[in-house]
Amino acid sequence: MMRILYYFSVLLLWSACQPDDTSTNQEQLPPPQADYPIAEHKWGYIDRQGQVVIDAQYDDCREFVNGLAAVRIGGYWGYIDRDGREVASPKYKEAYSFCEGLGRVTTYEGHTTYINARGKEVLPLLPFTADDFHEGRARFSQQGRWGYIDREGKQVIPPLYDKATHFQNGVAVVQRGEKYGMIDLSGQEALPFQFDRLWPFSEGRARAKKGSQVGYVDAKGQWTIDARWTQAGDFHQGLAPVQQQGQWGFIDTLGQVVSAPQWDYVAWGNAHRWIVSQAGKFGLLDAQAQIVLEPKWDQIAPFSEGLAPYMNDFLWGYLDTMGIAVTPPHFGLAWAFKEGLARVAFAEGIGFINKDGELVIAPNFLDVRDFSEGRARVQVK
Fold this sequence. Notes:
Elements: H1 2-16, H2 25-28, E1 43-46, E2 52-58, E3 60-61, E4 68-73, E5 76-81, E6 86-92, E7 94-95, E8 103-106, E9 112-115, E10 129-134, E11 137-142, E12 145-149, E13 155-161, E14 163-164, E15 171-176, E16 179-184, E17 189-195, E18 197-202, E19 205-210, E20 213-217, E21 223-229, E22 231-232, E23 239-244, E24 247-252, E25 257-263, E26 265-268, E27 273-278, E28 281-286, E29 291-297, E30 299-300, E31 308-312, E32 315-319, E33 325-331, E34 334-338, E35 341-346, E36 349-353, E37 359-361, E38 367-372, E39 375-379
Antiparallel strand pairs: 1-2, 1-39, 3-4, 4-5, 5-6, 7-8, 8-9, 10-11, 11-12, 12-13, 14-15, 15-16, 16-17, 18-19, 19-20, 20-21, 22-23, 23-24, 24-25, 26-27, 27-28, 28-29, 30-31, 31-32, 32-33, 34-35, 35-36, 36-37, 38-39
């Protein structure tokens, strides 16, 4: 009898610990909009004189593209124009900068659509995740596979691929099974599926991998430079960086070595310059791989508008294309020039300098972003 009473009491305790059948876990969860934080300090926009021209009232925001910027209030995104007027009311889960004249938005129900410059939805809600348009095609994902839609939302290329890139110069790199190839805008095979890895074309040649080695193929998929390099980069102005035994050198479009592997690191730096490093120091080469600046700095970033950030002893300044320091390294951080101004970090915060290194917008804000179409995002104290 005692044993029966014991088991009965255990049963009662177990039942008391079970969830109430009249409620569900879904009802106990906060709404998905709550996943977006409310900013303690709001975001707005300044002009090139540093004046706040769109009041700080947003929890998050993006740069201006095609005259519009995506902004978030609470858990919803919408769009404003350069004067701060609402063009598309905040009602979307996500909103992105315009690309090819359309802004991509998603809903909390998992749908994607696009809006035009007037804030109007131009496509019905698509029941899958899609990306921005490039050359009139947008990638979309359905059941783990990738395809493409056109600007009317029609699936012009069905979801057949394990991986897919944006279209570039009329072709896209796609993966099917274990092999890579290319397709054209209609979905027809442009390069056969015979490569172990493939990259987009650059100056008429695409990097391709065969086994563990990398070479280059032409528009017909024919090897023009045999796969014999450990790693390789895109062609820029007739040269491409290639790696062998851990060191980088350069080849021309015929595959001939024009500069023997000798660099620890190589990157295209824009403005007809290569950025290279050797023994922990960074320098510059010209477009023919000739030394412009012997490696001497701790870091060099790519050029933008003719100037590149460089670092020495953990401080940053700017170089011109001849490797001459336009400013000494005295900024805590330095970013690329955009629309003639660059963000730099002082002890007091982040401000903007011009190309002469002169401070033109004081560090009066908690945080700032680059200028785009005459407006810069700022977080107001």
